Every structure is written in structure tokens, then in C-alpha cells.
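Researcher: Here's my situation. A collaborator sent me these components and asked whether they could plausibly form a single complex. I don't have experimental data yet, so a predicted model of the whole assembly would be a useful starting point for our discussion.
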Amino acid sequence: MNGLRPRYVLAALTLWVSGGCADLPVVAPVADGSPLNAKAGRPPQQQIWTSDDEYARVARAEVPGFAGFYLEDDGTPVILLKDHRQRAAAERYLAPQLARARRGRNAGAPQQPIVRKVTHDFADLKGWFDKLDVLTFREDVYMLDVDEVDNQVSMGVRDEAAIKAIRREAARMGVPPGVLNVEIRRPPEMRATLQDWTPTLMGGYQIQGPPTAESTGECTYGFNAVYQGMWMFVTASHCTYTTFAMGNTIIGQPYYRQGYEIGSEYADRGMYACAGVNTSCRKSDAAYIKLNGSRTVGQGKIAYTPFNVDPTVAPNLEVIGQYDIIRRYAGPLEVGTYLDKTGRTTGSTYGQIKEACVKIGQLICQDISSVWSDGGDSGAPMYVWLGNDQVELYGVLWGGPEGDVTTTYSSRLSGIEQDLGPLTALCAPGWGC
Amino acid sequence: MWQMTTLLTAALVCVAIASCAGAPNGSADVGRTLEGVIVGIDPRPDATRVVIEVEPGAPAAPGRKTVILLAGLETEIFIQRADGTVHRGRAADMVVGARVRAEITGVERRSLPPQYEAVRLRVLPLR
């Protein structure tokens, strides 16, 4: 017999005992007709075994009447039982959890668990949970939980009408009164950040061009537009494979990886006589990327985060809303005008124009503002914030002075179009621009 | 006549030596400079991207750990040998692991990592 085999068996057993109550879904067979398999109206599917299923099993096996385990705010372990006489069995079963409970911030918590006598055991509660599960398909129901702390089943719903409807349904299902607590809860929200995958492409989100050796090549999605009858997005030219040149670059969101591609470079150019004969310049650091149709186009949309105002504090990149572009910014950009941007590195920030229409290197008529930006924000849409989630599109961010993240260089929309061609459908639907 | 020829020859020799020596030894780099170790080299049509890990304390790019230096057609590249002599070089002379001192324009393109156009690059001898 291989001398290693007993060690593998022991390791497997150790993992099974310590991991048995972890909330890791694993496939486990459940006998037909058991309360745990009561999923009325559901198509047959593999049963997923959760920690709730495990506690329900224990309530009918090692610890009859077991009703759950939790930690109080001060770390005191609390065991819930229908029958106090099962305390020793419960403590044996929960030995790994009790040991884990005394780590980290709870290292100083009382070691002896408190035992509370309750009316319903975990198997009862889980059985009612499973019965009520079908109600979570209603659009006014947000969550369902075996609430071991209060020894009940809890349901979060949208409003008073939903509370009444659910209580009627629960009574019809035979769920005893007092078992089910129904309360109004805020609807859950997806808390994405600008650096996450997004199903709807819009300004502000992270993109990645071809990374160079040992570096990442991350930038920001600028804004959507139609060019030559096709959906594009605009970002900085230096976020593509070759700056100021066509290169058929593939761009991914948020990563440059197979399956994450969103488009390929469609329009870019080198220096040309942009200021007349015998000149060699461009009016923007921008490129058009043709979208490949793999995701929804958020026409005229720019994501935003909470305003980040202190460059010494890590920025909040959580997406909390979307702006509608309702106009192109028109007219001269006076010094003092407020400009905003949303970029993958510093989120939504704003500042004022300090110098307008400046020649920087071979780029003419660029603007310099006190907007906070940093590496990765290149390509970010820059706009004039109007309030009420509406903005005027001004251009794209591309850089700043080395060593100063509180100063930003940007290219105007007019310069972008003069370099690369006219754009339409810049604005949110209904705004006609 | 003979003296003119000698003088002319001497002048020609001096010019030849000066042009072959490239930059004078120990000439100071001007502008914003940073030093670091090359961790990646990516030749592209518009410029070779030299990825460096920046050594702390450099005057330029404070707080940056990794940056991309753009070595284009107009970038002057020099190789400094252990004996202190400095010779003209090419992008192909740069290798991963080499230390470089770069003089940059001061304009930062805010990709991640940020990109800087290198005015001058000097490949330094190993420490």
C-alpha cells in the first residue's frame, strides 16, 4: 500500500469536517419527497448543498433540534436548540466553528457559548424556506432567509402591498403564523466599479489595449458615437498599439483577453498639415474603435462615481449612476470653465480650465485644467456637468504634466472630429445630437 | 604649405575623433530625468516601448513604479561602458535587465503605466 495514501485520506477527512459547515456549494444527493427537495414548480436541476442544508440535516441527525449558530456583536458564540440537553452534542458538532470564532477581532470574546432555547429547529425553518422559495420569483420580492438569530424565516419585499400579498400566500401554503417575518427592504443593487466588466458599454469604464511586455496597457472608454454608419467608441490614440497611426488594435473590456474583446481600431492617423501648409500636427490624441456588437451600446451614456476630490485619498470607483449626454459642448472654452471627467483610475473628478487652446508638442489647441487624473484615465470622457444627471460632451482626456496629477491635458471634440471625421449619435436617445 | 597641410590634417583628425566619440564623457543630462531597470522591450512601428521599473528618488515621475519610455526616431540613445566612455547606441542595444537613465519631455500620457517620450536614453553599466 502506498505510504502516502493514509495521509490523503486523513487530509480529505479533515477538509470534510472543517469545511462541512462552510458556505461552499457542493452537489449532494437529496432523497425525493424530503422537505429539502420541495421546489414546487421548478424544473429539475442538480441540488446545491448550502450551509443551510447542512444545518437542517444536523437538526435531524447529530444534534436533534439544532436551530443554528451565530456570533453576537462582541463575538460571544450563541447556539440555538429546541432541547437544552443537546448542548454537548451541539458543541462537539460546532467545535471547528467555535475555534474559528475566537480569531482575529473576536480573539478576546467569551469562549463559552451561550445556549438559547427556541421553538423551531433548523430543519423546520429550512422546510418553510423551501416552500416559500417559489414566491421569490415575484418581482416585488427581493430576498428570503432562514433567520437563525430570530428563529424565523424572513422575506424582504418592495412595499406594503407586497407584505399583504405574501402573508396571504404563506397562509395558503400552510406556513404557521409567527414563523414568517415579511418586511420592506431596499432593492439590491449591483455594485460594480469602473474597473469591472460591464454589459452596457459607456464612458468611464476600463478598457485594455494590447499590453506591452511587463506592462498592462489600461485606459478608459471615452464615449460612443456613430461614424460612417457604424457604432464606434472614442479613446486616446496612445491607448492603441501604435500612437498616431492605424494599427487595427483590438480592445478588450475590462481586459485584453479572449472573450472580452469589444472592438478594433478603425480610425487613427499620424501628423498632418492640420494647421495649414508646412505644418505637421494633430488636434487630438484620439482614435475611433469600431464596436463588434458583442455588448449593448449605451448611447450617450457616461458612468459616474461619487466625486473624488482629494488626490491623497484612494478614489471611490463604485459606479453609482449614468449621465446622459444631452449636447455637444459648443463655443469657446473660457479659462475658469468647470470640466468633469470619469476615468478608471480616479473615478469622477472635476476642475477648472487653467489654459485654453494650448500647443503641447505636436498637438494644437489642447486644454489644460485642474482636473485630477492619473495613469489609466487616458481616453476618459470629459464633459461639462449640468446637474440632473445631464452633461455636455467636451472631449477626451489624454495626459498631464509628469509629476502633477492635479493637472490634466485634454483634446476637444471639435479637434477629434477634424482629425478623424464627423461623429453622430453622441447624445442620449431623444436629444438629437 | 607643409605647415598648412599639417594643420589641416590635425583639424580633420580632431573632427573625426569628436564625431566618433559621440557625447563627451560625463556630460550632464539636462531636463527631467529618471533611472530604472529595463523589465520589458516592445518594438512597435511608432516607437520602441521600453518598460522600466523606476528607481526611487528620481527627479522625474515621482511615485511611479513602472513607466513606459517611448524611444522613437528622435530619441538619442547612448551606451555608457564600465570605463566611463559613452558611445552612440540604438534601440536594439537595450536589453532587459539593463539600467537606464532617461531624460523625458515632461508630458505624461496617462495610460497605465504612463508613457513618456524619451529625449535621451543612456544605458548604464551594471553596478
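Model: Some features of this prediction you could bring to your collaborator: The first helix of chain B runs from residue 2 to 21. Chain B is about 15% helix and 45% strand.
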